[in-house]
Amino acid sequence: MDSGHSEMEWQELSYDRWTESHVSSWLRAIGTEETHIKKLKKKKVTGAVLTTLQREFLSNTVRMNTVQIEHLLRKRDELLESGQETNLSSQEPCDAAEQANIPTECSDSLTSSGEALRFCEYRKFDQNEKDCRYVKHNLLHPETGSDNMLVPCHEYKSLENAHKQDSKILKVKVAIEVLRFACACMNMRANGTIHFGIMDKVKGTHKHGEIIGIPLKNQEDFVDALDYIESCFKGSNQQSDARRCIRNPQFIEVLDKETTERTWVIEYDIIPKAAIVKDKIYSVGVPKFTEKDKVKCEEKIPYYRAGANTKRVTDDDLVQFIQGLREKDQQREEAEASSNETPQDFREDQKRKLLILLTCGKARMDNSLYYIVVTNKIQPEHLDSIDFLVNMNLFCVFDFDPDSKTSGLCGTYKKQKAANLHFLKDYANDNRSESSDFIKSLQLFEKTSWIFCNGRSDFPGGEQTCDETTWIRTRKKKLKKAVSVICNDILPRRSFVVLFLLSSDVEQPLVETFHEFYAEMNGHDFLTVLSESKENSKKFSSLAQVSCPTSTLRDISVEMPLSHVDATVQSIQLSKNQPTRTLPVFSGGLCFFKSVEEATLDSLEIISVDQCNETKLENMTQKEIQQTDIYFYRGGKIDWLNFWLADKRKCGDIIKRDAYKEASTILDNIVPKPKRSVESVIIYHQPGSGGSTVARQILWDRKNKVRCAVVKQGKEITTVCEHAVKLREHKENDKNNCLPVLLLLEDHNADYTDELRGQLGNVIATKKINPSVLCFILLICSRSNDPERLCRASPSQTVAVTHKLSDAEKPLFSEKLEQLKLENETEFILTFVLMSEEFKSSYVEDFVKNLLDKTDHSTLITRLIRFVALLYSYVDDSYISASHCEASLGMRVYVNGARHHAFVEDFTEEAKLILIHLRQSSTHIQSIKIIHPLVAKELLGQLSENVPQSDIAMDLITDKVLVNHRFDQDTFLKFIKDLFIRRNKKSRGDLADTAFSPFIEHVTKECGVQKAVDLMKAAFIALRNDAYVAQQLARLLYTNFRFQEALEWAEKAKSLLPSDTFILDTLGQVYKWWFCHLFDSLGQEEPSPEMGIEIINIALKGIRAFRASEKTPTKENVTFNSSYYGEVDVGCRLLKFLSVVDVFSNNTGKTELMRYLLTEYIPAEVHKPWQDFHQQLKGLQRNLSHALEYISEDLSYFQTDISEEDEELDARDPEQLYNPRKWLTRKSAVYAGFFCNIPEESDEAVMTWPEQLRDFLHSKSR
């Protein structure tokens, strides 16, 4: 059997009939590696064998790793479950379902539209449930007999045609079925329900028991049908009994999301109590139409239930049937007697259920999950019970109460915490902004986002409140967009819980919100429904069952008063909300700082005097404290909680390195005698040496003396400046007598820091604060591979942190290491062990070698490690999000019982040693990175012995699953972009400057230029046709003399960003290098005018490209256009080339050339060959003069630097970058050599030279 045929057939056969080929096709469909598929096929694994595969066989024989085994076995179990459901007979209920009167759920039945059918529950027998509803196309359990006297038997009638008849015919049809069924139940002494609007047989696409519903013209027809009791039952006693046993009809609405037509199921309950039917046999003559359309009752005969059918008692069986009634009467009496006994009340542990649903099975509620609350109006008396919401890590609230801001939940919440108020339309993202820009625009993750879903009564200009029907017509689409954006673009799967808070009567819009979340989250996991009352819960369940089975709704629903919820949830929350915190004041005391005030300064992370005091230490177990501590020593970033726990003596002291003491000394000298209002202290640190820890230790220890804050990443400088000033002046009366603000800036570039310093100085001057008053101290923490060199440049305000330990530090680290070893294995505190060993290369090398010797290099986990190591080795502080990792590993995270299993649990032991799971509070996306950059470099070095770095990179950027994965996509693609275009710069603390990214230079050196070109082309595609990658590829090509290809890529970059000065400059550089190469290739030969056509053409194209770049408006942060350098370079070399053309190379040639360039004169020899060039060549002197003047002015007055970001794009030569005055001197000399000694008739041209250039040349000639 060919593979294509088997791939088609395995889905059509039951798994127990699969051959080896079918199994192979199924394995491919679930993403199993081909090598493992071949091994299983060779072992003759058929469908039957598949069901018995054991973990040991897959590990030892097939050589699958833990992750792959878990994946296969989970998929196998899902297959078996679906197969068991398929084998269930639609006619035979399972015992458990029958006893509980709850139908089994099934997924093998399909509607006409192809959707899966679900079994649903019956209405509760003999109860009028106003909130009971059925869902169209769901299934009721197949019709049943009367095995148990009290558990009702069921009979279905579709009435799919009869309901269309007139009222008289419909009443007769209903009466026939009801009276016959009732008679049978009364004779069997068994409860029963007959349902109309349910399929009683398989017909077309409809299944037996399928809910179809019928439209009602008049409900009274079904009530009046019972009037036939008097004419159809035998005798007045039987008629009276029938009236007492047959209940009036119940009308249950059928929900159908595909149509607005209302349909119903009509049900009649039969309850033949022993006191009514004992010792009696009942007969009924069902009504029928005569030939004259009159209704006449047939002969009265007894009926009984035979299984799921209603049959007549024949004359032959009548005596025996009557004799058996006594036994049935006795059984009925016993059943009724036992049912009257008070059953032991089953009480589900609502507290445990609530906590499991909210924490996904964890013992405590921390900040590892975000919460989304969907709520309607909360009654005023319950608003005192919302503290648990204030303490939650609340992402957003969908609020259907228009008065929430003035008198509801929103107003109460805002008294304690800040929130941004939005409408549904704000989440539409109609502009299709990038996720990062959209998040920034709405300030998500900084403040709770409060979304008013049905207008705001206190906001006349906003959306108006509307009724349910209008809401569904006008706002349901907006809601759908909002939910989709949150679930698909902002929050990763399983990172949040959606809590539906039902405090008032449930309305359809709130249920629609449930439908949308249920669909977007692919099921009920991480959904919780909390109801204040049983009535709200029932109504919500009846409406929500359209998308979610009622049995599932029961599993995720909790009924509990809000006051009980508040106390219950607060009991497991690790922190309590602090409405106010405290800050130090100039007088030496403290002042209050409200949370809502703090939230307005959202560009700063403010460290208060009582930082972390909101933590409930009594709720933290010793294991949780130890995990917090060990996370830091494994390489995680230090948290304020680490310092707090150390102060509380709950964990060991945190070592203070020498750099801490040095920086503290500098600060102690600055504060009493500042030289300026804004001072700076700089900490340069090698990556992974603990510089960030030193900086945060300084803030922690000074939070009682000065006001301390960390500047958040990505914040506008003007905003940071404004917030820093407000923090300084908070609750202070005299602007000249305020405590200084200590601002920590971590890994902000020099441009950002300098501009912030300048703006703070401007504000101080504007406010007329005494310039001798110290207002701000910038504590700048910056990575550098050579921190000691940078420290020597400014020793008075700079400290260096390196991997090398001083003599004073070594015993501190040794002692701490021994303490940690008592509680942890050495491998799991590797980062601290490496630090203690001063990161000796031999130690790191041996550790990595031993680890890789135990590693299976063919697994997906090892592939992932290669990716992370590659990125972290070349891109500072890079990582891969946990969501990307799961996608790469092909893992489907699951919920087993109540506990959520993180994907890290499935890592190999080797991977757990070197990968750290980041859980920074500053980001909503968890991520993975190598524990230390030196370990990453060594890993990459040893891994690349088997797989070259170029192949690792190609595998990474061509992995569509990773590249297209939407969560944290912007950051992931930025890391890839930095890998390919970010250069090393000594000015940033790197050891040397590079012309291209270090990775591209490594590939070029190890594998050749073509491999680097192939990688750049693949990166261009992976980065969505990024213009700057195309530009760098053009640079790579022209520096390797592949000019035609370089020109194509430069043009491609220009087509993507036609107004970018750097890209236009690169186009000029292509022509410049091409021209220089052709010129240099001439050797000593004096070319003829004809031979010079190509060279001059390319040179002039280069000049035109540079001039086009010069005319393009520069970026806001770029004040100088480097294309002037390119124009001067090409122009000066072009002059040299023209001077060697045979026409101008003789004794009088220079004079001839100057006449040609500066006058209307054209030599006959060049008149025709250069006819396309005359005009531009005659403008050469003027253009060169202008360019030289521009460069001279810039060097004389502005001394312009370009930003760090633009340094990656700058194509200037090293001399132009680092010694521009020397370059200008050389080029000016070339210019002067041609244009200074010109004949008298050209004196006018001399007068056109710029004055500054003449002065400059004059000064150089002295």
UniProtKB/TrEMBL annotation:
Record GO cellular component, one term: cytoplasm
Source superkingdom: Eukaryota
UniProt domain SAM: residue ranges: 18-71
Record Gene3D superfamilies: Transcription Factor, Ets-1
Protein name per its UniProtKB record: SAM domain-containing protein
Signal peptide: none
InterPro entries the record matches: SAM, SAM/pointed_sf
